[in-house]
Amino acid sequence: MSGYKRKQQGITLFGLIVWLAILGGIGVMGAKVVPTAVEFFSIKKAIASVRTAGGTVQEIQTAFDRQAEVGYIDAIQGKDLEITKDGNDIQISFAYQKKIPMVGPVSLLIDYAGTTAK
């Protein structure tokens, strides 16, 4: 062997624990946030569906409530929708907040909003 030392490569146990903690935290946050995002997209799909069905404001709200029941939507109800009519054109909007508890007193607050307007 010549007089040179080969530098070791790799990760220390402490470094591994830190990385696993960071990845674990991201995983837990993702597991709590993903269901709310899925619910948001279900709401958007539901309002697009009831918009094409048309009808009165009450009929649209009732149709949304039926879709919400089938689609496991708990965040809003038909009465929470903002429905505007301009002649035969119907626009439906919604907005709500979702508070997700994380650890102890720490929570994540997400504002969701959507509309059928182009």
Task: Describe the structure in your own words.
This is DUF4845 domain-containing protein. Pfam families: DUF4845. It comes from Paraherbaspirillum soli. By secondary structure, the chain is an alpha+beta fold. The chain has one domain. The protein contains two helices and three strands; from the N terminus they run ααβββ. It has helices at residues 13-53, 57-70, and strands at residues 82-86, 89-103, 106-115. The chain has a three-stranded antiparallel β-sheet, with helices on one face. A hairpin with a 2-residue loop joins strand 1 (82-86) and strand 2 (89-103). The radius of gyration is 24 Å and the shape is elongated. The model has no long low-confidence stretch (mean pLDDT 90).
Quick synopsis:
The chain has helices spanning 13-53, 57-70; strands spanning 82-86, 89-103, 106-115. The protein is α+β, with helices and mostly antiparallel strands and 118 residues long. It has one domain.
User: Strand order, biggest sheet?
Assistant: 1-2-3
By oligomeric state, this entry counts as: single chain
Main pleated sheet: 3 strands, antiparallel
Q: What is the average per-residue confidence, as pLDDT, rounded to a whole number? A: 90
Radius of gyration: 24 Å
Give the number of helices: 2
Number of strands: 3
Shape, principal axes of CA atoms:
elongated
Please trace the helix and strand order, writing H or E for each element.
HHEEE
- Provide the domain count: 1
SS-based structural class?
alpha+beta
Strand residue percentage: 25-35%
Distance separating the two termini: 72 Å
Poorly predicted residue ranges = none
Percent of residues in helices comes to 40-55%
